[in-house]
Specification:
By secondary structure, the protein is of the alpha+beta class. Helix content is about 20%, strand content about 50%. It has four helices and 13 strands. The protein has a six-stranded antiparallel beta sheet. Strands 1-2-3-4 form a four-stranded antiparallel beta sheet.
């Protein structure tokens, strides 16, 4: 796992040479599990100093144009400028959780070997360390995760991760929202050009109560 964490550091540097496209679908469900709202977006994602920057290209199938395009260009420019600043100057609550930090704050157990997508993988179960020192909301959330991670044995990169929240999480002490136990996410990535691993898919299911 120390090798995997070190490879994640190297990956974050190489990834800055790439831009990739992503399609996202967000669905809101009511208490009966019925879909009440669906939003789709197409994005371009690139990295600056390890921080992912998302550029909105399409919303609900329509390319951005006019005033919306100008606003998005301005937002992305500011995001890049912010990411280029030394890390301590960035608000902690705005920092995104990284795969490396999830691994650093987790206890792993039950190692075994499996095949994943035709490649040899080492599989670990993990649970977030409650005593881990965290910085910001995203890392606080990661302490409440437990799940399983598939590590590509050859490249020492995370190929797949399944995780669930093992406890409720109160945003702003419960004044803003409560993320409920059982919320989950799944993450996949694969090798590109033999030098970098990039995301190929992700699914997040949040059970939460918003307080206004």
């Amino acid at each position: 796992m120390r090798e995997v964490t070190e490879h994640q550091k190297q990956l974050e540097k190489v990834r800055e040479n790439y831009t990739y496209s992503a399609a996202q679908t967000t669905q809101e469900l009511d208490s009966n599990g019925q879909v009440t709202k669906t939003d789709t977006t197409e994005l371009e994602i690139f990295y600056v100093n390890g921080q992912p920057i998302e550029r909105l290209v399409k919303k609900d199938g329509k390319p951005l144009a006019g005033h919306d395009l100008d606003k998005e260009t301005e937002r992305v420019t500011k995001a890049v400028e912010k990411a280029q600043k030394p890390q301590p100057e960035q608000p902690k609550e705005d920092q995104e959780i990284s795969m490396r930090r999830i691994l650093e704050m987790a206890d792993v157990r039950n190692p075994r070997r499996e095949s994943y997508r035709g490649r040899a993988a080492i599989v670990f179960d993990f649970v977030g360390r409650k005593d881990a020192k965290t910085h910001g909301l995203s890392e606080d959330l990661s302490k409440k995760l437990q799940g399983t991670v598939w590590v590509d044995e050859s490249d020492r990169q995370v190929a797949h991760l399944d995780a669930v929240f093992d406890d409720n999480f109160h945003v702003a002490g419960g004044l803003v929202a409560n993320v409920q136990k059982g919320s989950s996410f799944h993450f996949d990535q694969a090798s590109v050009n033999g030098e970098v691993w990039l995301p190929t898919g992700a699914e997040v299911t949040l059970q939460m109560r918003l307080l206004w």
